[in-house]
Amino acid sequence: MKLLEERIKADGQVRPGNILKVDSFLNHQLDVSLLEELGKEFYERFKDKGITRILTIEASGIALACCAAQYFHVPVVFAKKAKSKNLDGDLYTSTVHSFTYNKDFTVTLSKKFLGSEDKVLLIDDFLAVGKAMRGLIDICKQANAEISGIGIAIEKGFQCGGKELREMGFPVYSLAIIEEMTDEGQISFRENP
């Protein structure tokens, strides 16, 4: 998606260790107009899949998932990283490793919000090695829910996550796939497979 690629080139910051900061528009400060366009693009890609739920992990994926959900007219549910006192009843749980924080999280989702009747679109802001997405896939498997698609804003194509998920048979659609990032700030993109 050229709109997102241009915004990444204009406002993204490459940091050592293959880190791309897009906090000025995607995951700290939010450009809602941009997010609406991204959500619309996910809708165009997956509108014929019978989506009944959009699932993401807190926190950065929530805004993007909500913008997509307004086009699908379905609820957004998100796996929580923190245990809270208001989580009750039966829970799905999965352990995910955060590339950004270099830390494992046990994510939880109440069983009342996802079931075998659901056709799920998984959405997240980034895909690097795919640990967060594998956690969401695990939760969907526990629920016997059908994964109808995976929508990613920015995929680091030089890392293994997208390739592995596609090889597993999941329909992965990334709006921007980064082919290469240099420490000097140069970013190149490739087309979505």
Automatic annotation (TrEMBL):
Its EC number is 2.4.2.22. It catalyses: XMP + diphosphate = xanthine + 5-phospho-alpha-D-ribose 1-diphosphate. One of its GO terms (molecular function) is xanthine phosphoribosyltransferase activity. Xanthine binds at residues 20, 27, 156. One of its GO terms (biological process) is XMP salvage. The keyword Acyltransferase does not apply. It is found in: Cytoplasm. It holds the Pfam family Pribosyltran. Residues 23-156 form the Phosphoribosyltransferase domain. Transmembrane segments: none annotated. 5-phospho-alpha-D-ribose 1-diphosphate binds at residues 128-132. Gene3D superfamilies: 3.40.50.2020. Its main location: cytoplasm. GO terms for cellular component: cytoplasm. Pathway: Purine metabolism; XMP biosynthesis via salvage pathway; XMP from xanthine: step 1/1. Keywords: Cytoplasm, Glycosyltransferase, Purine salvage, Transferase. Homodimer. Converts the preformed base xanthine, a product of nucleic acid breakdown, to xanthosine 5'-monophosphate (XMP), so it can be reused for RNA or DNA synthesis. PANTHER family: HYPOXANTHINE/GUANINE PHOSPHORIBOSYLTRANSFERASE, XANTHINE PHOSPHORIBOSYLTRANSFERASE. Belongs to the purine/pyrimidine phosphoribosyltransferase family. Xpt subfamily. This is Xanthine phosphoribosyltransferase. It comes from Oribacterium sinus F0268. The lineage of its organism: Bacteria, Bacillati, Bacillota, Clostridia, Lachnospirales.
